[in-house]
Amino acid sequence: MSDLIDVQLDALGELLGELAALGAELGEEERLCASAGRALGTALEGPVGESAAATGAAWTDLVTTLAARTLAVAATLAAALESYRAVDGSIAGQLGGGRVPVPQ
């Protein structure tokens, strides 16, 4: 027996928009983290400055990875949404000769 999956296309589209925006915001944070790490490394002398610069670089790597993965999930979700809408439109066309409204 198969399970029924219920997908709300508009809600999925909203989630996609939020993920894409978050990925873009994280991309901006990446540049700020890199800049702050370099500034701290320059402003502080000795091992403390080196540690601050290394921490800034590590944080930048983390934010970069998070941004990339967030955008990858958004891209996967966009493909799934497009596929769901195509199937939904096809089924609607079969049921009512194209007269059934398909949510966008």
Give the overall form.
rod-shaped
Mean pLDDT: 87
Number of strands: 0
Give me the number of helical elements.
Answer: 2
Ends apart, CA distance between termini: 30 Å
> How is the biggest beta sheet arranged?
none
Kindly report the oligomeric state of this protein.
Answer: single chain
Give me the Rg, rounded.
Answer: 22 Å
Structural class: mainly alpha
Beta-strand content bin: under 5%
Tell me about this structure:
The chain has 104 residues and is mostly helical. Helices cover 83% and strands 0% of the residues. The protein has helices at residues 9-43, 46-96. Helix 1 runs antiparallel to helix 2. It is rod-shaped and about 75 Å long. The mean pLDDT is 87.
Q: Which properties best describe this structure?
A:
104 residues, 2 helices, single chain, mainly alpha
What does the secondary structure layout of this molecule look like, with pairings?
Layout: H1 9-43, H2 46-96
Helix pairs in contact: 1-2
Short description:
This protein has two helices and no strands. The chain has 104 residues and is an all-alpha fold.
